[in-house]
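It is worth pausing here to work through a concrete case rather than discussing structure prediction in the abstract. The textbook approach is simple: state the sequence, then state the predicted structure, then interpret. We follow exactly that order.
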Amino acid sequence: MKKIFFILGLLLLILIVVVLVRTFIFTKDIPHTKAETSASLQSSAVAHLSSAIKIKTISTEINKPIDTATFLAFRAFLDSTYPLIHQQLKRTVIDSFSYVYHWKGSNASLKPYLFLAHSDVVPVESSSLKLWHAEPFAGTIKDSAIWGRGSFDDKGSMIAIMETVENLLQQKYQPERDIYLCFGHDEELGGERGAQSISKWLKEKNIHAALAMDEGGIITKENFPDLHRPIALLGVSEKGYASFELTVEQEGGHSSMPEKETAIDILSKAVVKIREEQMPVIIAEPTNVMLERIGPGLGFTTRMALANRWLFNGLLVSQFEKSKGTNASIHTTIVPTILSAGIKDNIIPTVAKATVNSRIMPGETSADVIKFIKEKINDDRVKITRLEFGGDPGKMTSLESAEFKKAETIMYNLLDDVVPVPFLMIGATDSRYYDHVADATIKFLPVIDPKGFHGIDERLSFADYNRLINFYTKMITVK
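Step two, the predicted structure:
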């Protein structure tokens, strides 16, 4: 027995030494960097974004008619605000309210860059108006920020792109490569009439880009507080998107004489079953690389776990699963978003329906999601139909590509001590439609922990807005 305990003790000691040595090797200082001096924000740029916010280009429902007068007013605003762009760039109108601006470069051998944004915004709940500290569509300028719906998502980006190009035209700058500004008008509804139509137009014109640059990742300080450094989340891939309808048809009748199971009972049990267990853990390549880059600067326990994932992977997964954001980065998510049944309080409905939305991890498909749902529900009375399909997960931009490395370098030049990392987008962007017309897609806006988008008190600080303009300027002008 003594020999057994001795051997076990020795093995434990070796294990501890291995863990500590690997942790020590993994521990290193992340290099500190100093940003270059950037151009100052012009007051006219602030006024222009404020004016853009005042035009209520709201997307409400897919099948609801668009407010054409508002979107035409936004076009008129662009025409009058950016005269050089409309004199020197060729604009093509796509599906009435989406636009492609072509800025011809001096070197036809270089593949073009595409800069993407969208002009539509989500509505503001009337019940939330009293909670706003500035009227949502007033474009209020206060506290060193521009307030209002769309200030960040995504008019801030669109107007920053326009400001950048107009400024460069004023300086008589001509880019080396062709530049295309691609602005959709229905991203908040899925982008089928805007971004999808634009990408089809590009393909028909045999235009294949080196880069498509869109909204997506941000700069965050809040999500990695232990690091005490800003993290630039450069989106290089995104999860797939699909919605499904669960339908149960069961004899209804008078509420005074219910059957043992009603359509609502069966549907409710089905919904609970698909929420009780998640699809398998997948740690995608962008997440792995991100952890490798920021891990050395985190606390000792986290560093030890990351340096010895062969031993502590279960612990890491459990930590990821504690937060809805990090949990979504390692699982295909499935969640009910709409429930529908019944017309009167004393009638048991015959039909009950639930809409379920899924965001699909790279390595899985919508077929895997349907299989999972069927297996978990295990009830033939529940009919499963795929409703909306935004697509399975798209391709990943190579971290060795010139475009990714360029975005990294520019971020080092824009913000002190920033740590650029690759990032898996858990939400959907217009850029998913451009996978087949661009070699690389980067989903990123250099805005620090933005506030209020899709919610209350949406706003864009002067500092973030200025960084956006400087980022786009460098993406166009830096070789």
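Step three, interpretation. The chain has two domains: 43-222+396-477, 240-391. The chain has a mean pLDDT of 95.
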